[in-house]
Amino acid sequence: MPSDLYAVADFCLIPIGTGESSVAEYIAECQRVLEKSGLTFKMHGYGTNIEGPWSEVSQAIHDCHAAVHAKGAPRVATDIRIGTRVDRDTPVGDGNDHKVKRVEEILARDRAAAS
Amino acid sequence: MPSDLYAVADFCLIPIGTGESSVAEYIAECQRVLEKSGLTFKMHGYGTNIEGPWSEVSQAIHDCHAAVHAKGAPRVATDIRIGTRVDRDTPVGDGNDHKVKRVEEILARDRAAAS
Amino acid sequence: MPSDLYAVADFCLIPIGTGESSVAEYIAECQRVLEKSGLTFKMHGYGTNIEGPWSEVSQAIHDCHAAVHAKGAPRVATDIRIGTRVDRDTPVGDGNDHKVKRVEEILARDRAAAS
Amino acid sequence: MPSDLYAVADFCLIPIGTGESSVAEYIAECQRVLEKSGLTFKMHGYGTNIEGPWSEVSQAIHDCHAAVHAKGAPRVATDIRIGTRVDRDTPVGDGNDHKVKRVEEILARDRAAAS
User: Fold this and answer.
1) Which residues form the Thiamine-binding protein domain (chains A, B, C, D) (predicted)?
2) What pLDDT, on a 0 to 100 scale, did the predictor assign at position D4?
3) In this complex, do B85 and A21 lie within 8 Å of one another by their Cβ atoms?
4) Which residues, 6+ apart, have CB-to-CB distance to D49 below 8 Å?
């Protein structure tokens, strides 16, 4: 068992107690932190895909919390989905994209069969 | 207060007890269910963005569970992130994309300022 | 397949844009809503266990959002974990407790074996 | 900003690809791992409350994944809720319980006012 499992993850961070209903400035701050982390990440409508060694993914999300606190949020809550597997190697940086591709291939077969 | 709040959501469904580590066939089945729901949705690496009236979003995810059970999974667990707001109207079908655009605009200003 | 699967769930609701870092008053408001729902629920340190027919669990959480908006939160975000199973019946109102008991029985065997 | 924020968290781990719908043996294995971590934790019906320095909470959940893989699960997916705050100190080991107490005090006032 590797001592630092490769993690394919996704997280959604919410600043609490800011007095403003917009969270975009805080999420932008997270994106800047992730840019510096060197990890593969990609924002979507309700969170951000991220992957890498577990400890680095965890550290990157921790640093997002620290940056959002520094920007004025007294409290921050995050939901993280994180997965690991030992049945096969995950191509580094391609774990999340690979999952999407697999599903799209199956759906493409549907369309091919229907046409 | 509307009796059926507009919900901007994201969910990640996991089949349990299938005896196979791949979940792609089950996720593809969900995508077929969502296609029929008529709601706006978009798959990403660790879940699927979806939005619409709360009751319809909930029903669509319920129907994904039913379809994944019908496909053989004895047990299904899903993580749902769901948000509502009453400070302004969410353009129907554009709630998740709008959030991404707002963050990207802020990051684009960073790049403009840096150049 | 039942048209309304029995759901064993847990949710954590977060008010956004309130200007106060404490969320206790909003969570208390949710507990009042759940009390009226007639469903089995139990608060813990980072959310609330709840179970019942899927549509009723969903409606109860929707009504928590509506109540928290009415109390002044412009935006509300919730993380829901929800599970269904078709391999056996879940005793109504005992789904979450049953899972805890099963794990505790296993751990009790550890202690019996060690003593 | 502390370099290792104090984290109040909750997680729900799911083994994938095990061929059995019961997850109790895997969750029991996690509880054994957490026992060794020295952190404050408490299982409930849909997850486990846990708290401590962010890096230690993250490591404990990582080690649960490793243990569940070692027990035979080819793939493991976890949902983590994690919160930090900088407006006041969290009493070590009392973050989750403190939140419950605050809500229960408010609800007790309801009952006192009603009687």
Assistant:
1) 9-103
2) 96
3) yes
4) C44, C45, C46, D9, D10, D41, D42, D43, D96
Strand order across the beta sheet in which A75-85 lies: A40-44, A47-53, A6-16, A75-85, D75-85, D6-16, D47-53, D40-44
| ipTM tops 0.85 | yes
Q: Token pair for residue B12? A: 């990640």
For C49, the token pair is: 């266990």
Model pLDDT for residues B2-48, shown as the tens digit of each residue? 799 999 999 999 999 999 999 999 999 999 999 999 999 999 999 99
State both tokens at D54: 């962010």
Q: Give buried/exposed letters for D2-26 (b at 16+ CB in 10 A, else e).
A: eeebbbbbbbbbbbbbbebbbbbbb
Distance from CA of A75 to the nearest CA of C (A): 6
Instruction: Say which residue, C21 or C9, is predicted with more confidence.
Output: C9
Of D97, B51, D54, nearest to A80 by C-alpha is D54
Is C110 in contact with D32 (Cβ distance < 8 A)?
yes
How many Å apart are CA B84 and CA B101, to the nearest integer? Answer: 18
Q: For residue C36, what pLDDT is reported?
A: 97
| Residues A16 and A86: beta-carbon distance below 8 Å | no
CB contact under 8 A, B96 and A46: yes
- Taking an 8 Å cut-off on Cβ atoms, the answer to whether B14 and D14 are in contact is yes
Q: What does the alpha-carbon distance between residue D41 and residue D31 come to, in Å, rounded to a whole number? A: 9
Please work out, in degrees rounded to the nearest 5, the angle formed at the alpha carbon of residue D31 by the alpha carbons of D25 and D33: 110
Q: What digits encode the pLDDT tens for the residues D28-61?
A: 999 999 999 999 999 999 999 999 999 999 999 9
- Name which of B12, B20, B46, B76 to mutate to probe chain D: the one with the most chain D Cβ atoms within 10 A of its Cβ: B20
Hey, of B27, B29, B39, B46, which one would you mutate to test binding to chain A, going by the most A CBs within 10 A of its CB?
B46
Contact predicate C100/D45, CB 8 Å: yes
Separation of alpha carbons C96 and C94, rounded Å: 6
Q: What is the nearest CA distance from D86 to chain C, expressed in angstroms?
A: 10
Token pair for D70: 């070692």
